[in-house]
Inverse folding.
């Protein structure tokens, strides 16, 4: 056995002439098509952090194990569903995909969820079978330990060690020879840089910023951790902190102000991170927050957004969250319209249908003009625009905002109407100026928030509107009626996001009151409740299962 990054691996072979060792993950079993590596082992670990080194780049491949919602006809996907007898869902399709030295997020199909990533012996991407992958895993990875020869032959003599992995040799060189050549090279390079600096004032960041401005269909920028430290001035200005980690104020070299979200690795979810980058990176809309870039560097996971100086909407809706001045009803109405337009764009404005699954005040950010931006796509799912009903394996979102069909199978299928329900709850909170309670309370004595709003409106109460003008009262009435339509228990009774916007923008006289939302319909479905786990993005700082 040999210890690599704290995990034990089987030693299949040692070649003392070539200074190589071949290791096999203990999770790989001969004859078992279900067996996959137990540990997260990638080539990058060896290149930067380990005592051992892969022999050379061309001898390894990257393999990704994934769970897909539908069959994949792509020849590069290795199906392993036929031997997956223990699969917990008949709707799940398990595949493996083998790439070259690295794989991009964009290489993964939208309906697939990454389960595990690992390195294998070299496999030529193409029409591979499960047996090909299994054979490569059983063969293991060949690593070099030339470092030990460097120590024994060069470093003990205080000589510089140059490794040659192609012929398994090392060359010892006197440091002064190296230093002399290096100094000369540095002087020439320094003179060249001074010349270039005088002719060019824009930094690389400025060039990228301008390029992205002109070609807005590009992906977010990948930054290094060193870049992150520079833009935040070594994390000097902290904007906030949550269970996911901390957010810092930063500044790019171009002068652009950004918000830098540093994730805590122990709480971060890899799939949430991938969803955030892959989903929001393709979106460009005035009411959707812009992802400027990201960083993945070992344990440093970072998301970089445009800075929103007015923070999140919850601080203005729930005044106990801070000392913010209450927004006018007209301003709240315009914010509601902006949020609705952002959600409508996600549902219909892209080449893929994007379901957010976590619409709530905390995830609505406000810029300097109070323009709302839908944020946090850690739980988002992408589907074909042709799909009216989608399949998910877990209820997603924050309790109190989760649509009932994610829990109760007989109410209706899961669709874009789930976001409509969450939007309705958000509108009710904006009007009621209080947090919504658990919409799925076990005891009927607990107040159901939509019913509470309905009763107040039906009794002619003014929702604490104070000295509101007649126009502002119309805004509030529209928000209440539209919200009550959005939170109808059955998805079929809710409007689409386009229809919701049409009602919000239309005349109050044309709106009809919907049926009163009550708990009895939920209680009638308790026998058909789906026992599913709840996917939350606590790791991304946008979810809490206690409602806030």
């Amino acid at each position: 056995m040999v210890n690599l990054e704290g995990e034990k691996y089987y030693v299949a072979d040692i070649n003392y002439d070539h200074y190589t060792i071949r290791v096999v993950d203990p999770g790989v079993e001969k004859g078992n098509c279900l067996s996959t590596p137990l540990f997260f082992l990638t080539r990058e670990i060896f290149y930067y952090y380990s005592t051992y080194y892969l022999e050379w780049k061309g001898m390894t491949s990257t393999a990704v194990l994934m769970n897909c919602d539908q069959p994949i006809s792509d020849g590069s996907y290795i199906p392993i569903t036929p031997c997956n007898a223990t699969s917990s869902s008949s709707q799940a399709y398990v595949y493996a995909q083998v790439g070259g030295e690295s794989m991009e997020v964009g290489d993964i199909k939208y309906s697939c969820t990454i389960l595990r990533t690992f390195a294998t012996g070299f496999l030529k991407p193409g029409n591979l079978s499960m047996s090909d992958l299994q054979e490569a895993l059983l063969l293991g990875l060949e690593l070099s330990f030339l470092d030990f020869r460097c120590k024994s032959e060069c470093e003990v003599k205080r000589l510089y060690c140059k490794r040659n992995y192609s012929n398994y040799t090392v060359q010892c060189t006197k440091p002064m020879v190296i230093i002399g050549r290096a100094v000369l090279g540095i002087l020439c390079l320094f003179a060249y840089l001074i010349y270039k600096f005088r002719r060019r004032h824009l930094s690389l960041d400025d060039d990228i910023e301008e390029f992205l401005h002109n070609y807005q269909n590009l992906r977010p920028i990948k930054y290094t951790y060193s870049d992150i430290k520079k833009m935040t001035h070594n994390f000097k200005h902290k904007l906030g902190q949550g269970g996911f980690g901390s957010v810092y104020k930063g500044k790019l070299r171009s002068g652009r102000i950004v918000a830098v979200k540093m994730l805590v690795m122990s709480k971060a979810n890899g799939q949430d991170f991938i969803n955030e980058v892959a989903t929001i990176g393709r979106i460009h809309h005035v009411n959707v927050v812009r992802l400027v870039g990201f960083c993945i560097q070992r344990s440093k996971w970072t998301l970089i957004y445009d800075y929103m100086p007015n923070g999140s909407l919850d601080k203005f809706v729930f005044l106990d969250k801070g000392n913010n001045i209450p927004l006018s009803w007209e301003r709240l109405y315009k914010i509601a319209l902006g949020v609705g337009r952002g959600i409508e764009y996600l549902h219909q404005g892209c080449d893929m249908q994007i379901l957010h699954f976590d619409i709530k005040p905390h995830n609505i950010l406000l810029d300097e003009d109070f323009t709302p931006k839908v944020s946090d796509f850690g739980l988002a799912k992408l589907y074909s625009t042709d799909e009216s009903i989608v399949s998910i394996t877990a209820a997603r979102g924050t309790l109190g905002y989760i649509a009932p069909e994610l829990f109760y199978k007989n109410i209706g299928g899961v669709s874009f109407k789930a976001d409509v329900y969450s939007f309705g709850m958000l509108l009710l909170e904006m009007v009621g100026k209080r947090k919504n309670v658990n919409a799925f309370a076990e005891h009927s004595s607990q107040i159901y928030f939509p019913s509470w709003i309905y009763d107040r409106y039906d009794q002619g109460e003014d929702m604490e509107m104070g000295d509101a003008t007649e126009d502002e009262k119309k805004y509030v009435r529209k928000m209440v009626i539209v919200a009550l339509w959005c939170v109808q228990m059955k998805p079929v009774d809710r409007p689409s996001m386009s229809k919701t916007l049409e009602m919000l923008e239309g005349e109050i006289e044309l709106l009809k009151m919907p049926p009163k939302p009550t708990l009895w319909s939920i209680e009638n479905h308790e026998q058909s409740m789906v026992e599913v786990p709840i996917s939350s993005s606590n790791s991304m700082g946008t979810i809490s299962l206690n409602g806030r």
